[in-house]
Design a protein that fits this description.
Helix content: 25-40%
Protein name: Amidase
CATH topology of the domain at 8-257: Amidase signature (AS) enzymes
Domain Amidase: 24-464
InterPro entries: Amidase_CS (IPR020556), Amidase_dom (IPR023631), AS_sf (IPR036928), FAAH2 (IPR052739)
Radius of gyration: 21 Å
Strand content: 15-25%
Largest sheet: 11 strands, mixed
CATH superfamily of the domain at 8-257: Amidase signature (AS) domain
CATH class of the domain at 8-257: Alpha Beta
Number of strands: 17
CATH architecture of the domain at 8-257: Alpha-Beta Complex
Pfam families: Amidase (PF01425)
Structural class: alpha+beta
Length: 483
């Protein structure tokens, strides 16, 4: 039997039943990587010797009757996570030799759950793009069309899953970095509620792995099925044992419903600041049709929805000001002059990003206060609805564009060009207030490219969009790249 594309829950059952060994799964995954990754370039740091050793240990544990959640399952890890003995560079050449001494907390949890780590997956420079390319490890292509991006910053992980390189992967999401690659590559991903998953050990090199709480950014699971997302999230979720974990244990609420016909869903396909391409709109419509066919209550409009323009503005302000704080920029004074020269009437997203580059602490506090008002608006909406379905980006995967200045790049939406970073507004809809969002494939575009949507759920009710994703997967069905 071919195991490379089997879901993790099926592999786990086969391992327990003795149908296959972890050593066999691992050897098969490694062989597939060695055959196909020369052209895809998803696995940037292989760790095959230690993977084979871990697989042998997993088989011994299975023989003893152990039953850990991921025991013997081959997985991959985004390059930005520390793994002791492997380089963590974030694609930044000055840190190509940075070797952490300890595993990130999420890598430790993977290993404790019995997973077999095959290696690390590629990322963009500093995780600052929705394409995955850097000077150290090169470019990751999309397995469906290698002239197109696999997404970013978890693009290597999505490409690995789509190619059958391991059953699961872990990534991170600040600007759609889990959801966009999943959408581009035809796999599943879950952006957890902010703060739900500890992130220690996912820090730009050479910084120390401190248990800090990140604003906007989260760590999360990626898989080929929705059910596997829940399996992996249960391993990842929970506070850092060095901080909140000293006093608190996690108990996530169950999904609000188990049957599709009980869900109340708001479906969106239009944004006031950027159009939705026809292929993505068709994907949203496929999900809406599946919901209606399953008996769910579906609405296309609600006065309870927070203002999308203000949400996008707040997201850009918080994203850019926070990113600058983590990655200091040159010519700060010149940027202040440029921002001051903007017309007060210029409320474009480009102007918003420039102003955010020179945000003061007072500016940030005001934006944060308005974020809390939006969070309260979402609470009221989720008293009426269980989930919101909407795009992740306006288009399927686009051709590689490595123009040195990202501000010069454009995104083509049905023949019209828009600023490259404006496509972040849909991802930011869930990120800005910290809501959970599950990316699910919906089918293929007329050009044969995957199209996905996101299911946004109530804060800390991650199991609700995850359960809805499982039910939709049953309605829509799955698909995979041709061998």
């Amino acid at each position: 039997m071919e195991w490379d594309f089997q879901p993790a829950h099926r592999l786990s059952a086969a391992l327990r039943a003795g149908e296959v060994t972890s050593a066999e799964l691992t050897d098969e995954a490694i062989a597939r990587i060695e055959r196909h990754d020369k052209t895809i370039n998803a696995i940037c740091v292989p760790d095959f010797d230690r993977a084979r050793a871990a697989a042998r240990q997993a088989d011994q544990a299975l023989a003893r009757g152990e039953d850990r959640p991921l025991l013997g399952i081959p997985v991959t890890v985004k390059e930005s996570y520390d793994i002791a003995g492997l380089p963590t560079t974030w694609g930044m050449p000055p840190h190509r030799d940075h070797l952490p001494a300890e595993d990130a907390v999420q890598v430790s949890r993977l290993k404790a759950a019995g997973a077999v780590v095959l290696g690390k997956t590629n990322v963009p420079l500093g995780l600052q793009d929705i394409q995955s390319f850097n000077e150290i490890h090169g470019t990751t292509g999309n397995p469906w069309d290698r002239d197109r991006t696999s997404g970013g910053s978890s693009g290597g992980s999505a490409a690995a899953l789509a190619s059958g390189f391991g059953a699961l992967s872990i990534g991170s999401d600040l600007a759609g970095s889990l959801r966009t690659p999943a959408h581009f590559c035809g796999v599943h991903a879950h952006k957890p509620t902010v703060g739900l998953v500890a992130t220690r050990g996912m820090v730009p090199p050479p910084g120390p792995a401190l248990p800090t709480e990140l604003d906007l950014a989260v760590a999360g699971p990626m898989a080929r099925t929705a059910r596997d997302l829940t399996l992996l999230l249960d391993v990842m979720a929970g506070p850092d044992p060095l901080t909140l974990g000293m006093a608190y244990a996690l108990t996530l609420p169950p999904a609000r419903h188990e049957r599709l016909r009980d869900f109340r869903v708001l479906v969106l396909d239009e944004h006031p600041l950027i159009p939705t391409g026809s292929a993505v709109r068709a994907g949203v419509d496929r999900v809406a049709a599946a919901l209606v066919a399953g008996g769910a209550r579906v609405e296309r409009h609600s006065p309870l929805l927070p203002d999308l323009t203000e949400a996008a503005t707040l997201y850009m302000q918080l994203l850019i000001s926070g990113s600058v704080a983590r990655f200091p920029i040159d010519s700060y004074e010149q940027l202040q002059i440029q921002a001051a020269g903007l017309s007060a009437d210029d409320q474009s997203l480009s102007a918003t990003r420039l102003r955010a580059l020179v945000f003061s602490h007072r500016d940030w506090m005001e934006a944060n206060h308005r974020r809390e008002l939006h969070r309260h608006g979402w609470r009221r909406l989720f008293a009426e609805f269980d989930a919101v379905v909407c795009p992740i980006t306006p288009t399927p995967a686009f051709p590689h564009d490595h123009a040195p200045d990202p501000l010069e790049r454009r995104i083509d939406i049905d023949g019209a060009e828009y600023p490259y970073f404006d496509q972040f507004v849909w991802a930011g809809l869930a990120t800005m207030p910290g809501l959970p969002a599950t990316a699910v494939p919906t089918g293929l575009s007329p050009e044969g490219l995957p199209v996905g949507v996101q299911l946004i759920g109530p804060m800390y009710e991650d199991r609700t969009p995850l359960r809805l994703a499982e039910l939709l997967e049953q309605e829509i069905g799955g698909f995979r790249i041709p061998n």
